[in-house]
Amino acid sequence: MNIIAWVILGLLAGAIAKAIYPGHQSGGILTTMVLGIVGAFIGGTLLTLLETGKLQLTAASLSIPGIFVAVLGAIIAIWLWYKFSGRLV
Q1: Quick one: which of 17, 45, 50 has its CA closest to 32?
Q2: pTM for this structure?
Q3: Which of 84, 17, 73 is CA-nearest to residue 42?
Q4: Number of alpha carbons in the 13 Å side-chain half-sphere of residue 74
Q5: What band does 87 get if pLDDT is binned at 50, 70 and 90?
Q6: Are 23 and 89 in contact, with CB atoms under 8 Å apart?
Q7: Which of 38, 41, 33, 42 is nearest to 12 (CA)?
Q8: Domain ranges of the chain
Q9: How far apart are alpha carbons 68 and 40 in whole angstroms?
Q10: pLDDT, tens digit (0-9, with 9 covering 90-100), for 15-42
């Protein structure tokens, strides 16, 4: 996937995840984009693990199912961030 597709997927997934997740998340557009890209890797890896049974670092693609998986991964990333940073949501 090229860099423009990563940016678009990151912005879409990060923005949707921030809107769905309860509480206030700080950060600007760059934080949202990075959150979405990390979410694409988390979601893609978990989906590959469920489908094949192998732990393999993969990312979601720029498609409707890919965005759905990336949003789920971004929600997991937000939860992990608040869990390990000690902040309250």
Answers
A1: 17
A2: 0.78
A3: 73
A4: 29
A5: low
A6: yes
A7: 33
A8: 3-85
A9: 9
A10: 888 888 887 777 777 878 888 888 888 8
